[in-house]
Automatic annotation (TrEMBL):
Matching InterPro entries: DUF4252
Protein name (Swiss-Prot/TrEMBL): DUF4252 domain-containing protein
UniProt organism field: Hoylesella buccalis ATCC 35310
Length: 160
C-alpha cells in the first residue's frame, strides 16, 4: 500500500526535475532565435557567459557602476539586425516567444519611427530576465539580460 508520505517524497524530486527541464527548454528556445540568425549577413550577435561576468570586477572598465552591475549578470545576449528584409521575421519570432512564455511588457515607447519594448520575467531568487526590443526603420536590436538586476538597473543603463 502506498502511503501519502511516500507519494509526497516521490513527487518532490519529480516536480523539481520537471521545472529544471522546462527551464532548459525555455532557455534553449530563446537561444534558437539567436543561433538561427548568428551567421546571417546583416546580423551581428554577442553572447557573454557567466564565466566572463565573474571576471568583470577584476577588469578595469572605467565605470565602477557598470562593473558592479556586470558582476550581478549571469547572461547577456545581443542580436543586431541591419538588414530590413529580415526585421519583420526576427521581430515576429521574438514577440511570439515572449508572449508564449509569459514575459510582462513593462515599458513600451513609440517615438517617430522608433519602437522600444522592454519585457521582464522573474526567474527566481532575486534574478530577473529583461529583454529590450528596439526597432527602427532599417535596424532591429534585441538585448537579453539575466541576473540579480532590477528595473532600476535597466533604467540606469537606458539613461546612459
Amino acid at each position: 500500500m502506498l502511503h501519502k508520505s511516500d507519494l509526497t517524497a516521490w513527487l518532490r524530486p519529480l516536480s523539481l526535475a520537471i521545472c529544471l527541464v522546462l527551464g532548459c527548454v525555455s532557455l534553449s528556445a530563446q537561444d534558437r532565435l539567436f543561433k538561427q540568425f548568428e551567421n546571417t549577413k546583416g546580423v551581428s550577435t554577442v553572447y557573454i557567459s557567466p564565466a566572463m561576468f565573474k571576471l568583470m570586477p577584476k577588469l578595469d572598465v572605467g565605470d565602477k557602476d557598470l562593473a558592479k552591475l556586470a558582476s550581478r549578470l549571469t547572461r547577456l545576449q545581443i542580436l543586431q539586425c541591419e538588414r530590413p528584409s529580415l526585421i519583420p521575421s526576427i521581430k515576429k519570432q521574438a514577440q511570439a516567444y515572449y508572449d508564449n512564455n509569459r514575459y510582462e511588457v513593462i515599458m513600451r515607447v513609440k517615438d517617430d519611427d522608433e519602437h522600444t519594448t522592454i519585457y521582464q520575467k522573474v526567474v527566481g531568487k532575486g534574478n530577473n530576465e529583461f529583454v529590450l526590443l528596439n526597432e527602427e526603420k532599417a535596424e532591429l536590436s534585441l538585448i537579453h539580460l539575466i541576473g540579480n538586476i532590477t528595473l532600476g538597473d535597466i533604467k540606469d543603463l537606458y539613461d546612459r
